[in-house]
Design a protein that fits this description.
It contains 5 helices and no strands. The protein is mainly α. It has a domain of about 55 residues. The chain is elongated, with a radius of gyration of 27 Å. The mean pLDDT is about 80.
Length: about 100
C-alpha cells in the first residue's frame, strides 16, 4: 500500500506545477511528505531541477512578425519541380 501512495505522491508533486491542486490533494501531499522521507527528498530534487532549468532556458514568446512570415509562406503557391515531367504519366515527352 505504501508504494501506491508513493506513486500518487510522485504524480501529484509533478502536477502541482501544472495546475492548482484540490484541498484533498494538497493535504495528501503534506501528510505523505512528513511520513515518507524518500518521497520528500525526490520532491526537493525535482523542484530544484525544474527551477534550475527554468533559469537556464527561459521560453520567450515569438515576435508577432515571425508568425506573419510563417503564414505568408504557407499562402505562397508551391513551386513545381523542374523534373516533374519525368514522373508525370501525362507528360509531353519533348526534349
Amino acid at each position: 500500500m505504501l508504494k501506491l501512495r508513493c506513486y500518487l505522491f510522485s504524480k501529484l508533486s509533478h502536477e502541482q506545477r501544472d495546475r492548482a491542486l484540490t484541498e484533498d490533494e494538497t493535504g495528501f501531499l503534506e501528510r505523505h511528505r512528513t511520513h515518507c522521507e524518500e518521497c520528500a527528498a525526490r520532491e526537493r530534487i525535482l523542484n530544484a531541477s525544474l527551477d534550475t532549468l527554468a533559469l537556464l532556458a527561459p521560453i520567450a514568446a515569438a515576435p508577432p512578425e515571425s508568425n506573419r512570415d510563417i503564414l505568408e509562406k504557407l499562402d505562397r503557391p508551391v513551386r513545381q519541380s523542374a523534373f516533374s515531367w519525368i514522373t508525370s504519366p501525362l507528360a509531353d515527352h519533348r526534349l
